[in-house]
Amino acid sequence: MNCLNDLRKFSGTLKASEKMPVVFVGHGSPMNAIEENTYTKGWHSLGYELPKPAAILCISAHWETKGTYVTAMEQPKTIHDFGGFPRELFAVQYAAPGSPELAEETKKLVEKTDILFDHDHWGLDHGCWSVVKNMYPDADIPIIQMSIDHFKSPQWHYDLAKELATLRKKGVLILGSGNMVHNLRLVNWNDMFAKYDWTESINAQFKRLISDRNHAPLINYQSLGKEAQLAIPTPEHYLPMLYILGLQEQKDEISFFNDDSWGPISMTSFKISG
């Protein structure tokens, strides 16, 4: 538990470090928490490749609120926010510590809105723990989650992310977890893994814009036409990506991984590092 001790002994002030990468992951099905597949192997590799963080701040598609909250408890619970899956998935517990200190640090940094503390309602939802469990199976890195204010615009979320940039230089891994293409309404449950031409097309367009650092069309995704509307029927899985793009700095480089899709879901993920 050395990471937690490091945070506590600085009484809410995180140590300076080399600038941490930031990461967006397509998290897909909760079953990825207990299966071994291409995506989980990508997350395993990511955990080995990254500098070990002092703490993690995760923006997950699965915590929507009015206002912006961060978890601020010592020991966040593992939330099984899904139904209809095998019993062994509900048995999974990811017992990583929380960090009230990082919650305080985040509140101090953000001027765009009043960050509110959640002490007992939330915890770690599957958008967070199903991924981080594969990256850091020892559960020894403190984690907090930041909620998505679903009353705010994509531009607002992108701008809010910029206020978190200082955390990158304090050993904090900022992780966005969602899917850049996510439309469960259009899944063909008789052939879940069929390839859809429109999914491939809009995913490729998103990647080109990301690679070109052309963020404006990604923020104003409604202007990208019918395929974008199919890809993003509701914004909660898309917005975590905008947080990570908002943290990109001038000299940062982007690398993609888990670059795949099934049906109307894109698992394409990327790391930004400098």
Radius of gyration using CA atoms only: 17 Å
Strand residue content: 15-25%
Total of helices: 10
Largest β-sheet summary: 6 strands, mixed
Stretches with pLDDT under 50, minimum 5 residues? 1-12
In the CATH hierarchy, the third-tier topology is known as Protocatechuate 4,5-dioxygenase, Chain B
Topology order in helix (H) and strand (E) letters: HEHEEHHEHEHEHHHHEEEE
Give, in spatial order, the strands making up the sheet with the most strands.
5-2-6-1-10-7
CATH architecture: 3-Layer(aba) Sandwich
Topology:
Elements: H1 2-9, E1 22-26, H2 38-49, E2 55-65, E3 68-71, H3 87-90, H4 100-109, E4 115-118, H5 126-135, E5 143-149, H6 154-162, E6 172-178, H7 197-211, H8 215-219, H9 226-231, H10 239-246, E7 253-257, E8 261-262, E9 265-266, E10 269-273
Parallel strand pairs: 1-6, 2-5, 2-6, 3-4
Antiparallel strand pairs: 1-10, 7-10, 8-9
Helix pairs in contact: 2-5, 6-10
GO molecular function: stizolobate synthase activity
Protein name: 4,5-DOPA dioxygenase extradiol
Domain Extradiol ring-cleavage dioxygenase class III enzyme subunit B: 52-253
